[in-house]
């Protein structure tokens, strides 16, 4: 390796792995949430077309998760410049763990948004009482 490199030579691998994990897992969650919520939108469009715009909200929320992962991936990757400052294994592991935290949170949020968006869309289309509507405390 070049003599101008300062820090650990394997540390950038872990940093870029964290950036990739943030982007990939967040986009997987966004894709799952969008696809699963799309089923709710389709059932709403068949049963009650006048309420389709209400069921678009989970699709938009799921799509935003991919943007969050992209933002974190850009922040992590711009912080990896071993020629500008020393980049040690601690920095690489910190970027890996932050990328995994963002990515896995985006994946789980996308799954939750997809499941709830699908169920909510189908319940609204079928005029079934779901969630807090059945609780007299919230009326």
UniProtKB/TrEMBL annotation:
Membrane topology field: Multi-pass membrane protein
Protein family per UniProt: Belongs to the V-ATPase proteolipid subunit family.
TM region positions: 12-35, 56-80, 92-117
V-ATPase proteolipid subunit C-like domain segment(s): 17-76
Record keywords, A-Z: Hydrogen ion transport, Ion transport, Membrane, Transmembrane, Transmembrane helix, Transport, Vacuole
GO terms, molecular function: proton-transporting ATPase activity, rotational mechanism
Cellular compartments annotated: Vacuole membrane
Subunit structure, interactors included: V-ATPase is a heteromultimeric enzyme composed of a peripheral catalytic V1 complex attached to an integral membrane V0 proton pore complex.
InterPro entries membership: ATPase_proteolipid_c-like_dom, ATPase_proteolipid_csu, ATPase_proteolipid_su_C_euk, F/V-ATP_Csub_sf
Domain of life according to the entry: Eukaryota
Protein name: V-type proton ATPase proteolipid subunit
Main location: membrane
A Pfam family it matches: ATP-synt_C
Function: Proton-conducting pore forming subunit of the membrane integral V0 complex of vacuolar ATPase. V-ATPase is responsible for acidifying a variety of intracellular compartments in eukaryotic cells.
NCBIfam families: V_ATP_synt_C (TIGR01100)
A GO CC annotation given for this chain: vacuolar membrane
